[in-house]
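Methods — Computational structure assignment.
A single polypeptide chain was analysed. Its primary sequence is given first, followed by the predicted tertiary structure written as structure tokens.
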Amino acid sequence: QVQLVESGGGLVQAGGSLRLSCAASGSIFRVNDMAWYRQAPGKQRELVAVITRGGNINYADSVKGRFTISRDNAKNTVYLQMNSLKPEDTAVYYCNAEVSHYGGTYNRAYWGQGTQVTVSS
């Protein structure tokens, strides 16, 4: 049993900043890749950023230079620092984590509950 709990969403004016957090807990041997996705009504879910356990990072073109993903392996937590926010960043943001379990052969992916980010003009 693994839970991903997100926090940090809210309402912010264009040009402002928010910091999202996602903490994994439960029966975890190791958290491997961690990522942030977002989905707005009428749009496809898209990958925003991904970070491997070793720290390799990739961003969507739309957020490069504005967002920063990071992680704390000791806390099984991933962060998304969002600066220079734009109205088009408005979406529900979901974290995702690939987890290795005690006594298991296969990794499994888990999703957070989602947190709303709204950027006003």
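Note: The CA atoms of residues 95 and 121 lie 26 Å apart.
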